[in-house]
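Before the break, one more example. Copy the sequence into your notebook; we will annotate it together after we see the structure.
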Amino acid sequence: MKKSALLVSLAVLGIGAAQAADPAKINWGKIPAVTVPLFFPGQSSYEWLRTEAHEGAVKEVKRGDSCTSCHDEEDAEKDIGEEIVKGGRLEPRPVKGKSGYKALKVQAAYDSKNAYLRFQWHTDNAYPGNEHQYLRFDGKEWKVFGYPKLDKPVQDGAEMGIYEDRMSIMIDDGKVPGFANQGCWLTCHDGQRDMGKQFTKDEVANNALLQAIKKRDVRKYLPDTRTDPSDWKTGKSVEEIAKLKAAGGFVDLIQWRAHRSNPVGMTDDGYVLEFRNSDAGKDMFGSNADAKTHQPKFMWDASKVGYKSITVDQLRQGEHHLIREKNAVPFDPNAGWKEGDMIPDYVVSREDAKGSAADNKAIASWKDGVWTVVMIRPLGLTNDDDKTLKAGGVYNVGFAVHDDNITTRGHQVSFVKTIGFGAKADIKAVKLP
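Here is what the structure looks like once it is written out:
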C-alpha cells in the first residue's frame, strides 16, 4: 500500500497554503517526539478504583491523588497491561493474542490557525484495520456481518472479528475536577457497555436522564453529572447538566477512525459529559442500513470502482470505503444479489459533515505495520461543545488506541499527560515558522 494513496490533498482538507501549514509537508524530523506508554485497562472502572480490590490505594484515589503517584516505577504501564490482558478479575473475556501494551509516539506543532498532533503506533496485525462491519446478503435478507472481538459471537467462533482501528484523545482545560490526576478513569464506569454490571434494557428504559436525552444504552460520563458519581442510574436533571456544560465542565473527545472518518480526511468531534456525545451538527459517517427495509441505502458505483459489492474472500485486500459523493449510488434491490454479497454498514461523506462536529481534519497512512496519523485541530474554537486551544495554553490529555478489531474497553490507554502550545508540558507543541 503506497503512502500517497492514503494522503488526503489540501483541497479535500480545505486548508489553503496562505492560511495554515500544509500538514503533509511539516518537517516532523525537527519536532521532538515523546513516547507515551499505553496499557490495557480491562474493567478498571471509576468504581473499581474506589474499592478494596484496588489494593492499597482506595484512600489515595478517593482523596484525588494522581494515578502516577503510585504507578511511577519504570515499565509500570507495561506490567499492568500485560497482567490484565491475560484475564482474571479485570478481564472476564480475554481476547487471544491481544497485546497489553503499546508505545505511542506523539509529536505536536502549531501555527496561527491550527494545532497539528502526530501519532505513530505499531498495529497488532499485519494489515491496517480500515474496515468496519458489513451488511451481508444471506439469500433472503441483509444482516450485519462482523463484530468486535470482545463480543461473544466472535469469541465463540460464530462471527468474524471486524472493527476499525481508532486513535482518540481526551482534552481537559482544567475545568473538570479530578481529570488532571485521574484522567479517563473519571469517564469509565460500571454499567457501561462491556464493563462490570452492564446495563439492562429495562434499566435504560426506566432511567429518567437517559430517556430525557433519548439514549438507549450507557456510555462514558463524568461523575459530576450524577447525584451519586458511582451509580449511572442517579442522573442529575437536564437543566443541571446544561449548567455544567456552560461552565466548561466537560472533556473534549476527538476520535480518528480508520473506516468512518479517515476516507474523507477527518476525525470526529465529540465530548463527554452526561454521555459520550457528538458535537452539534452532523458527523462524517452514518448508518447505511434502512431502518424500515433493513436493506442498504447505498451500494458501490460499479462504473467507478468495478464492483457493487464484495465477498468475504476480498476482506483486507484494499480500501473498502463507501463514500457517498465519490463512489456510491443508491441501492438497487433488483441488481441480482447473491448470497454472500457484502456492502459496508456505514457510509461516509465530507460534504454531509456540518457544524461543530466537522471541525477536525486528519491525514493518515499505514506502512510496514505502523499507523501515522496527523490530527488537525483549529485554534480558538468558540463552540460550546469544544475546548478552546490557544498559544500559551496547557491542557490535560489522555490517549487511547483501539487496535486489532476491537472496541469499548479493548483499547490501550494512557495515564494523564499535559500538552503545551509554546508552554512547558509533558508534550510541548512547537511553533511552526
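Residues 1-18 have pLDDT under 50 and may be disordered. The CA atoms of residues 394 and 420 lie 4 Å apart. Try to locate both features in your own notes.
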